[in-house]
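Human:
I keep going back and forth on a fold encoding question. Comparing notes only helps if you start from a blank page. Show me how you would write down a chain together with its backbone fold. Write it directly below this note and I will take it from there.

Assistant:
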Amino acid sequence: MDKLFFDTETTGLNPFKDTLICLGYAINDKPVRISYGFNVKDLKNMFMDPNYLKIGHNVNFDLLFLNRFGIETIGPYFCTQNVFKILDPYKSVALKDLGLRYSFIKTSLLLKNLVKQKDIDNTLVKIGCDNTKGYGFIEPQVLEKYLTQDVELTRKLYNKALEIGIPEYYMKIDQKLIEPILKMELNGFKIDSDKLKILQQDLMIEIEKLGSYFKELNINPRSTKQIGKYMETQLLK
């Protein structure tokens, strides 16, 4: 199966309000390409081809933006971020941090160090989030270098995951959740309000029972100190 490694750059984190700027992608071992246009027939065909494994880091984020801006996608998908989170849940799975940890890069390109605050002559590309952590503007060639590094890191992490061994949990559960989560994010989901009311009633009954139970024990269930003392007395019996 062919591999399609990709990453997106956007003006923010909300695909329903923000904009997709450009897409970086690479097929198998071929060089990274950057596309600013999203009506390219060959590009659309690859993302709709089930013979391509679409590989990204935090892949649901990228897939959501792609689908919102005219590039429909179908699986199979692979998320390097999720794999490394399972492999080592106590360390950062940020793309650049993983690249440094496995010595794929010596230094990481960070947007905050590459951008300018103003685009005086309207030649720069707006990048980052429209909030207090917003980045600003960046030269197109610098943005492409930054995006190329991210796609290359994603490819290296995928190969590293194969070398280490992909966790069974990821293959059986995590990977299979990518597509349904994407569909829910794109289309929303229907809530059975009647069933929800029944569950709420059941929950209130259970809370009342637990409240009576703790009242009989003379314990505040919100107090870890009181719970701890009670557990100690039970262990000593």
Observations:
- The first helix runs from residue 41 to 47.
- The chain has a mean pLDDT of 90.
- The longest strand covers residues 2-10.
- The domain at 2-187 is CATH 3.30.420.10 (Nucleotidyltransferase; domain 5).
